[in-house]
């Protein structure tokens, strides 16, 4: 079969495979990124083909590959072309999805084949969820998950890390030094120990809406550009996103937030909040739940403008009292309190003072945005164990536009009686400080789809690490892994999962 004829779109392949199955052919499916084909892959495909008559290989679309800076090295077209030249493989398809589940549902294989390293993961407690969901999908279509038994296991990531210059010089040196101190398994196992930590999460609930449109031209009657609507999608943002991220580490998340009674979005929120998050919502009568609607150019994906539906006045005294009464009963039951303060009226002075006094461990992220710029600063809190803000926010907190960032970090650290501070710098990584010196951590991806929510993800995933007293080098590294994963997703469309973190760490430190 000519290699160009082997490469099929998923819908075409769905029909081809259905016909082959009706003729009695057994279908075998393998899925992966297959960024660098090596002897281990060849042996894997040969072993897989023994299970049936037709071998289909599906690969992950470039947009959904989350393996670190410079990955994939080869784009999806080249990866598909290389695979199609392998005689053992009958068909190749590119799947626009994070996982193999879409290809499993489309192909309905008799056998879904994974390598021997995945068999080890199946009996491990570290990374079971993704493989389990794939096995469930295979069973639903009447197939079976099987593993090859090759005695030699190669790693594309190790080969790429060792022999291809895919990282900037500074990042490469940083990762080389980190590899000498920590193995991926050590870090992943360390993260798994956080499952029992009890976290109280409080902050503003936000519905993020993305409306995609296309410019049709200037209005004939007004000096404006007219846009045609294409589609829209909504995500659970703000503290809702933070709670979802945290649930990948801990099984004990208690969320406290305020919704607007006029339009609460409770059905939407309940649908998009992780089942393991126990939510306590209070309702304010004078507004709707906060909505931030962004209008996006449907072709370039560039944000055009934003409309915010919010009332950022402070909540009234009755609601404040109800929240304080709840916190008085609950706060002592938690190992740590995490506050995402977006400055939209929930965090009153009395609530701030109470939490600061009573929290066993307090993690703060106090954000500057268009509605509160210059007014919502971290130093309005009397103290914190951990602070995570960006470089602009620390400058606003210290009223210093041009000062040396390291000096400003130390100033806030001392004022807030802090244990740990991380200051994020977008594509330039982050600076962290514990009182023993500044640690510089580079950004860990160069592929940015959307920056919305990256800081929240980094804050969410580092806070429990600080509370659990992880090594000070590991905390910003894991935080930047979370940020790197998040910027590869549109908004808060997909919360960070433990498997995402584990896989990304594995790829970086192989």
Automatic annotation (TrEMBL):
InterPro entries given in the database record: Cyt_trans-like (IPR004821), PfkB_dom (IPR011611), Ribokinase-like (IPR029056), Rossmann-like_a/b/a_fold (IPR014729)
Protein name: Cytidyltransferase-like domain-containing protein
Domain Carbohydrate kinase PfkB span(s) in chain numbering: 198-495
Domain Cytidyltransferase-like, residue spans: 30-160
Domain of life, source organism: Bacteria
GO cellular component: cytosol
UniProt KW Transmembrane keyword: no
């Amino acid at each position: 079969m000519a290699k160009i004829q082997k490469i099929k779109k998923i819908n075409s392949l769905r029909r081809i495979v259905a016909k082959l199955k009706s003729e009695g052919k057994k279908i075998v499916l393998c899925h992966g990124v297959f960024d660098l084909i090596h002897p281990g892959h060849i042996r894997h495909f040969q072993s897989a083909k023994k299970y049936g008559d037709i071998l289909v290989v599906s690969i992950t679309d470039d947009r959904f590959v989350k393996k670190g800076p410079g990955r994939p090295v080869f784009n999806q077209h080249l990866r598909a072309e290389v695979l199609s030249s392998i005689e053992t493989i009958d068909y190749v398809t590119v799947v626009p999805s994070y996982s193999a589940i879409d290809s499993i549902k489309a192909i309905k294989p008799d056998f879904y084949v994974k390598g021997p390293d995945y068999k080890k993961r199946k009996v491990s407690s570290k990374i079971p969820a993704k493989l389990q969901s794939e096995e469930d999908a295979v069973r639903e279509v009447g197939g079976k998950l099987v593993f090859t038994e090759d005695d030699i296991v190669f790693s594309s990531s190790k080969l790429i890390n060792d022999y291809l210059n895919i990282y900037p010089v500074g990042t490469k040196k940083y990762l080389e030094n980190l590899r000498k101190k920590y193995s991926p398994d050590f870090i992943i196992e360390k993260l798994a120990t956080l499952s029992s930590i009890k976290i109280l999460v409080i902050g503003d609930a936000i519905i993020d809406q993305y409306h995609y449109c296309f410019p049709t031209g200037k209005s004939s009657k007004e000096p404006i550009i007219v846009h045609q609507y294409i589609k829209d999608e909504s995500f659970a943002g703000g503290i809702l996103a933070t709670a979802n991220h945290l649930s990948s580490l801990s099984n004990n998340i208690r969320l406290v937030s305020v919704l607007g009674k006029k339009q609460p979005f409770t059905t939407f929120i309940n649908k998009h909040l992780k089942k393991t998050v126990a939510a306590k919502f209070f309702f304010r009568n004078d507004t709707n739940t906060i909505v931030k609607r962004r209008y996006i150019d449907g072709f370039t994906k560039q944000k055009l403008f934003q409309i915010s539906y919010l009332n950022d006045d402070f909540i009234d005294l009755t609601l404040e009292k109800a929240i304080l009464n709840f916190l008085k009963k609950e706060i002592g039951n938690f190992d740590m309190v995490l506050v995402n303060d977006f400055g939209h009226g929930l965090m009153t002075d009395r609530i701030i003072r109470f939490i600061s006094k009573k929290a066993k461990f307090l993690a703060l992220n106090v954000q500057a945005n268009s509605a509160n710029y210059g007014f919502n600063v971290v130093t309005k809190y009397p103290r914190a164990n951990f602070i995570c803000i960006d470089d602009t926010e620390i400058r606003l907190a210290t009223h210093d536009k041009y000062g040396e960032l390291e000096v400003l970090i130390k100033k806030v650290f001392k004022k807030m009686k802090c244990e740990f501070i991380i200051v994020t710098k977008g594509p330039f990584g982050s600076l962290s400080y514990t009182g023993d010196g500044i640690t510089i951590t580079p950004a860990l991806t160069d592929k940015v789809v959307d920056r919305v929510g990256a800081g929240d993800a980094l804050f969410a995933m580092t806070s429990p690490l600080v509370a659990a007293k992880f090594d000070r080098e590991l905390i910003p590294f894991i935080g930047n892994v979370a940020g790197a994963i998040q910027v590869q997703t549109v908004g808060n469309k997909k919360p960070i999962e433990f498997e995402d973190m584990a896989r990304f760490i594995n790829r970086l430190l192989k």
